[in-house]
Amino acid sequence: MKEIVRSAMALLIILACMPAQATVKILATTSDWGALATELGGDKVSVYVATTALQDVHRVDAKPSLVARARTADLIFATGAELEIGWLPVLVQESGNPRVQPGSPGYFEAAAQLNLLEVPTRFDRSLGDIHPQGNPHLQLDPHNIAVVAKALTARLAMLDAGNAAYYQQRGKDFDARWTQAMARWETRAAPLKDMPVVVMHRDQVYLCHWLGLREVAAIEPKPGVPPSAGYLGQLVSTLTASPPRLILLNAYNDAKAANWLSERIHVPVVTLPFSVGGTPEAKDLFGLFDDTINRLRTVIQ
Amino acid sequence: MAKILPVAALMALAGAAPLAFADAADDVAALRAELQNLKNDYATRVGTLEARIGQLESAPAPMAVTVAQQPSPAGDLRSAASAFNPAISLILAGNYTDVSQDPETWRVAGFMPSGGEVGPGARSFNLGESELTLSANVDPYFSAAMTAAITGEDEIGIEEAYFRTTSLPSGFTVKGGRFFSGIGYLNEVHAHAWDFADQPLVYQAFFGNQLAQDGVQLKWLAPTDLFVEFGAETGNGQAFPGTRRNRNGFNGAALFAHVGGDLGDTASWRAGASWLELNAEDRSFEDVDEFDEPVTNSFTGKSRTWGIDAILKWAPTGNSAYQQLKVQAEYLSRQETGELTFDAEGLGLSDAYRSEQSGWYIQSVFQFRPRWRIGVRYDSLDSGSPQIALVDDGTLPPEAFPLLLAADPDRISVMFDWSPSEFSRLRAQYAWDDARADGQTDRQLRLQYLYGIGAHGAHKY
After folding, report:
1. CATH code, domain with A251
2. Is the pLDDT of residue B44 over 80?
3. Which residue in chain B is spatially nearest to A120 when comparing CA positions?
């Protein structure tokens, strides 16, 4: 028994004193932030992504695997604006990791770097699952990504001061490629401007805002509230009168309601990747927007 | 126990040591940190501003979006004092109960009653427990939370009220105050988050629903990709199966370990083992004697419990928004040794007592479409045959302790619930309850509502 106690003590001490890894360990809440962290951090960071593009980031369990990753993380890279409120606070709390507590340098929220759209003026849950700080699905406007990238570069340079020049170099490089790509996307998407579209949930707001798509209706009457038969019926009659060009769906959404509506009003459903990995083509952030624009352009070709 | 204590003590020391040294180095470190924070803040802001200028130059003017882009008005209106108010959430619960047997006579056959709000509850409409939770960070070192349960009988109880460290290094967390013990899986889950309207029989019989005591807990999370967590607790032992004793020091201890991980993108799991030792002093319970006269008996001695638990969650593509399957099971075993006193307020006959009892449940809940779930649970208990010296030596007949006669209660429950949103849930539950000694099945129908208002809570796994 004595031996067991002694070896248990030894194990505890060894584990407690394990040296910090050479790379900056990043726990990213979504595949988009994982991809951005990899773009900017290169081989100086190791990235773990908490969710896949096929999961609804509102609805994630505070899984043991994620608590374990939060324990060893040097940086938590989250969307913020309460998108991850159902699970991220638990991860941070259970992690026993003072480096990633909100307010610490190791806790980074994309939403905190931006002015969000749709900041509610009324805080009332009868309006659905609204986010008090604004709509958190901000990754679908590449200009937002450019802002977040700059702030993340600064944060990485601060957390890992020894490699600050490396991060700044990569940040500059990414910014140049991103600016160029944005110009390309905007040119290719120019014909889509003012196109009337129907969305699923209010999570394509930033995409519509960026490209000037006109959002004429949402299949969810209020955020997080599934449509009733009556509401869908009403949608059919209003949309038959003035039909949209597209019904936008995200890869993680259930296609049933959108397909049902599509058949009634004879408007095609276009499934967008929404996040890196949402479609086979959306392999990284560049692929995400290339593919999004390609898929949108199918209606004008 | 003696072998395990040193490890627990070492863990406690390792956790507390940095606190002791903190004061000396604190001032310098704090200043440095503040300076660094300022610098960083500056760097971030300049970066953000630059980016925003870039954005304004290159972005197309906003067109389609009608919703105004404006800062939150709350920021301007809130006074500085109320800005620090803790997060407040209130859970309202209630039920309609229809049972075929008199709920007043419900007992788990073969087990000493655990006290607590166990059993099917009263008939007809009942206001359940209203749970009021306040929580916030205290300072850079601690957070605190309190949950008060206000019962339908107008009593207020403190379910939990604890502080928790947020800045200990190396994966340590210390919690102190009153809190649900970390043993088992369901023990830490608040009533509003249960998948059924009540706890499994084994939790009702072994802990009077949930074990909470006033004390301290130390947890350590291993820095590994596999989730590995160890915890140790001690306290005043006031909760069943322990009792408060008029003594200094601790009453017993609890130890637990959890491991968990993922199976691909679609499934996740957690498994655990727990051990609990508590001392009971004059732990009394009501029974009847061999002439059917009410009598108060009591137990004094040691109660040791160990258990294992496991849970698996699965969802297609790991997306629980549409469908999710949960399967969980727990087994608990308890050994009690000490003295049993018959008619503590009258005859006061005392002699040796020893029991070995166990119980388990398995349950599965399936969310078959968004907002709709069905579930089934099977409960089983084995009381064993306690060794009662008063009976063995012929002082009293076995019928003098009708509640302690060997029994193996069980129950089947089915559940169906609908959650219009994350903040509301309506549930129907039907159970065939064979917990009673008379072998009469109690058919229990429970219709329940649960509403949450206020802060958006985050639930543990």
Report:
1. 3.40.50.1980
2. no
3. B72
